[in-house]
Amino acid sequence: MSSYGCVVEWSRGDAPFTDGRYPRAHEWRFDGGAVVRASSSPHSVRVPWSDPQAVDPEEALAAAASSCHMLWFLSLAAEQGFVVDRYSDAAEAQLGPIGFGRQGILAIVLHPQVTFCGPRTPDDAAVHKLHEVAHERCYIANSLRSEVRVEGGWRMAETSRP
């Protein structure tokens, strides 16, 4: 069994607290040394108590699902001899009511745009199958109760370079 983690650090500083006027900005520190500035979403907590330039947990969840899917897709494409030149995804997490007065992520929608190059060209069915298997193998998608959908496209690069 593998274990993954990060350190989340927040400090109030000299801001008031019990009146709700405290900063939500904090840091995520990862084992490889990466530090990500994070905050509550400005949709949840208004500025100046949230930092709109920081990553919020809802965005991070969409990014994690997208990244996991992409990494599996690339691995599977390489195994099948398809050369991926570029992969871009404008992923989104959709927040809404889940019952009992609570909110949750209802769906994560991936919009991958994949560019292939080289002599072996996939067809629509092959690309669809790559996304299907990547989705089945994605640890993040397998861990979520909400739906994770993939609505993407693909194309060949203008110039073929293997």
TrEMBL record:
Species of origin: Ramlibacter alkalitolerans
Protein name, as recorded: OsmC family protein
Superkingdom of source: Bacteria
InterPro entries, A to Z: KH_dom-like_a/b (IPR015946), OsmC/Ohr_fam (IPR003718), OsmC/Ohrsf (IPR036102), OsmC_Ohr_Peroxiredoxin (IPR052707)
